[in-house]
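Blinded run. Sample ID left blank on purpose so nobody reads anything into the name before looking at the predicted structure. Input follows.
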Amino acid sequence: ELDCLGVRGNHDFEVIRWSHALEAGCDAPQWGTEHYHIARALGKEDREWLTGLPWYVSTPEHLFVHAGFVSGVRLRRQNPRLMMNMRSILPDGTVTSKFFENWPWARLWDGPQTVFFGHDADRGLQQYGAAVGLDT
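Blinded prediction complete.
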């Protein structure tokens, strides 16, 4: 086993939702989803590890998150849904999971910690002053 850290992403979240639904005795979906099948196959230890993943990891110099942060909002006040799904912040401040070419959220991040993130492969490698997108 690897001794490593991870952060919760949108697909992890869906697998966790299905795990809880299965534990509660919910019926299988009429048309199986990949998340459902993964949840069914997970052992207890793997399910607990996945459920224990944090929304983000913070070190004195760096932050790690699946999708992103809203600049100007304290870390503890960030919305977990956005941390797993966001891609763009529009000029009017709307945060969205949609790809808007000229409006990546990372262009607005001003630190002080440098954030490393994924969930935005359409943009490829992103390098801003305090944000680095690694999804390529």
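Unblinding after everyone has recorded impressions. The beta strands are 56-58, 62-65, 88-89, 95-96, 114-117, 126-127, 131-133.
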